[in-house]
Amino acid sequence: MTAEEVLAELQALGSEQTKKTLMRHGAVEPLFGVKIGDMKPLTKKLKGDPKLVLDLYDTGNSDAMYLAGLLADPGAMTKAQLRKWAKAATWHLLRESTVAGVAAESPVAVELAEEWITSPKEELATVGWTTYSLCVAVTPDDELDLDRLRDLLSHCRDDVHTASNRTRYTMNGFVISVGSYVKPLLAEAKKVAKAMGAVSVNQGDTACEVPLATESIAKVEQMGRVGTKRKSARC
């Protein structure tokens, strides 16, 4: 199928109500308002076409860009392509789910995460922190640089409240992710979470709340799931 044919299928799946909801959360035109659950059946018949993946993302349509992330082969994505995706992402769902999810499963996950978290641009910094969060969620502990993760935890403790708005959200999420998925760093993540306390983020005209890191980590600990890795960084 071509990107144009896929766009036609996505348009048929869209709804004005879903579109309004997504736009209230930050999505921008163009988009059709397709629920993710309705989009996923398309992946079964579209996977295996790397050109289609890139073409869909290049449409600039939010639904098509999200679908591209579901279809992408992270191992086949180059650093240049992932950088292009990060810069072209139009809102936080694409940055923190699509781009970060694909990047986290790629061989260059840490390299790009390190590059992005130092960017003065909030849009790239948030991709970086989320890429790191998802990377630790899917990577075995013995393959992680624990000392570097300790450094990043300290950075979150010291700087989260002075970071830019959405960066605060993703830094808070990083601490939760380390505490939830990296068992050797549980105690340190809990200390950092306690030191940070509540993190304030303006999320616009939504009822979304910022998870309290101490509570989020405690829930995972109570379920006995600390260190249980995710099968995929994408959803």
Please name the defining characteristics of this protein.
64% helix; 2 domains; single chain; 235 residues; mainly alpha; 13 helices; globular
The SSE string, one letter per element, is HHHHHHHHHHHHH
Number of continuous helical runs: 13
Largest sheet: none
Radius of gyration: 18 Å
Beta content: under 5%
Structural class: mainly alpha
What is the general shape?
globular
Let me know the average pLDDT. 97
Helix content range: 55-70%
How would you name the oligomeric state of the polypeptide chains in this document? single chain
Domain count, please report it: 2
Number-wise, the strands total 0
List low-confidence stretches.
Answer: none
Our measurement of the CA-to-CA distance between the termini, rounded to an integer number of angstroms, reads 23 Å
Structure description:
The protein is 64% helix and 0% strand. It is built from 13 helices and no strands. Helix 4 (50-58) packs antiparallel against helix 5 and helix 11 runs antiparallel to helix 12 (186-196). The mean pLDDT is 97.
Compact summary:
This protein has 235 residues and is an all-alpha fold. The chain contains 13 helices and no strands.
Task: Describe the protein's topology.
Layout: H1 3-13, H2 16-24, H3 36-46, H4 50-58, H5 62-71, H6 79-88, H7 92-104, H8 109-117, H9 122-138, H10 146-159, H11 165-181, H12 186-196, H13 213-222
Helix pairs in contact: 1-4, 3-5, 4-5, 5-7, 7-9, 8-9, 9-11, 10-12, 11-12, 11-13, 12-13
